[in-house]
Amino acid sequence: MTQKPNPLSSIKVNGPIPAHLARSVIEETLRAAILDGRIPCGIALRQQDLADLFGVSRMPVREALRQLEAQSLLNVIAHKGAVVAPLVQGDAAETYELRILLESEALRRSIPLLEAADFEQAARYIDELETEHDYTEIGRLNRLFHMALYNKAPNQRLLRLVEDGLNEEERFLRFNLEAMGLGKLSQEDHRALLRAAEERDIERSVTLLENHLNRGVEVITRYLESAEPQRRKTSK
C-alpha cells in the first residue's frame, strides 16, 4: 500500500523562528503554500504537525490558523480541524454579489483620497497583466490592481473583507484561468476603471466596477456549470 504524500513536505523552514515572529511567519508561510497550491483544497492542517514543522509551541500555530480562517483560506470543520477551503465557496453568484457591495463601497471611499502614485502603480499592474502569461502571476496582479484603487478607503475592516474576497478569487484564477479562456478583455475593463478613477468620477467608476465584476461572475458560473459533469464523473 502506497503512502499518500504529505503536503507539508513542500514547506521549507530555515532555522529556528524567533518567538515574537512565530505567528506571522507561520501565517505567511501557510498562506503562500495555500495560494500557490502546494497545500491543496480539503487538506486538514493539524496543529501539532505544524508545531513540529516550525519548531514552535501550538499557541502561535493556533493564532496563525485563526488568521487564515478569517481570510477565508481555511474552514474549521468538526472532527477534522482547520481544512483548506475550496477555491470558490458556496454559490459563485452570491459570492460576487457580496464582493460588488464591498468593493463598490471601498472604491467610493478611496477615490477622493488616491494620489498620483496610486494611479501610477495601478497602471503598472495593468501593463504587467497585458504581457504576463503565467496564470499564477496573473491572479496576483489582478488582486494588486484592485487593491491599488481601494487601498485609501479609511475603513480598515472593510478593506480586510475586500481583500478576503480578492484572495479567494486569486486562488480560483490560479488553477482555472487557462481553462476559462479569459484574457485581454479584462484589461480593457481595468483601463476604463482606472481612467474614471483618475478623473475622480466616483459614480462612473462604481458602475464600471459593477459591470466588470458581473461579467466575471457570468464567466465563472458558466465555467463551473460546464465543469460540473466532469467533476462528478471523475469523483465516482
UniProtKB/TrEMBL annotation:
PROSITE patterns: HTH_GNTR (PS50949)
InterPro entries: GntR_C (IPR011711), TF_FadR/GntR_C (IPR008920), Tscrpt_reg_HTH_GntR (IPR000524), WH-like_DNA-bd_sf (IPR036388), WH_DNA-bd_sf (IPR036390)
Name of the featured protein: DNA-binding transcriptional regulator, GntR family
Pfam families noted in UniProt: FCD, GntR
Record keyword DNA-binding present: yes
UniProt GO molecular function: DNA binding; DNA-binding transcription factor activity
HTH gntR-type domain span: 20-87
Keywords, alphabetical: DNA-binding, Transcription, Transcription regulation
Native organism: Pseudomonas lini
